[in-house]
Amino acid sequence: MSSILDIEALIESLSPEEIRTIMDEVRSNKPTRVDTSRKLRSMKITDLYFESAPIPKDNWEEYLNHSDAIREQVLSGVDICVPKK
Predict the structure, then answer these.
(1) Is 3 part of a structural domain of the chain?
(2) SS (H, E, C) the chain
(3) Can you give the residue range of the structural domain that contains 62?
(4) pTM
């Protein structure tokens, strides 16, 4: 508990300019960019699947074979171009 009291006493002894300087330093270490490459890849996989999915209008077996092939292609990552950093 004494360390918490020491910290509180130290904070109370700081002037507003010193507090502002400390807070400026703390704010400057924030990340400036969020990495969204994984989300982008996931969205591209979903788009690829739904763009290629056929409509089962004539033959249900043909639809199943085609959808299985598209699913395998999507899971393998074919036709997905995510920019590298």
Answers:
(1) no
(2) CHHHHHHHHHHHHCCHHHHHHHHHHHHCCCCCCCCCHHHHHHHHHHHHHHHHCCCCCCCHHHHHHHHHHHHHHHHHCCCCCCCCC
(3) 37-76
(4) 0.37
Per-residue tokens: 49: 């699947």
In a domain, 81, yes or no: no
Average pLDDT for residues 31-52, to the nearest whole number? 82
pLDDT at 15 over 80: yes
Residues 6+ apart with CB under 8 A from 37: 82, 83, 85
Number of domains forming the structure of the chain = 1
Q: Is 48 a member of any domain?
A: yes
What is the C-alpha R_g of the chain? 28
Q: Please give the Cα distance from 43 to 18 (Å, whole number).
A: 46
Domain membership of residue 49 (yes or no) is: yes
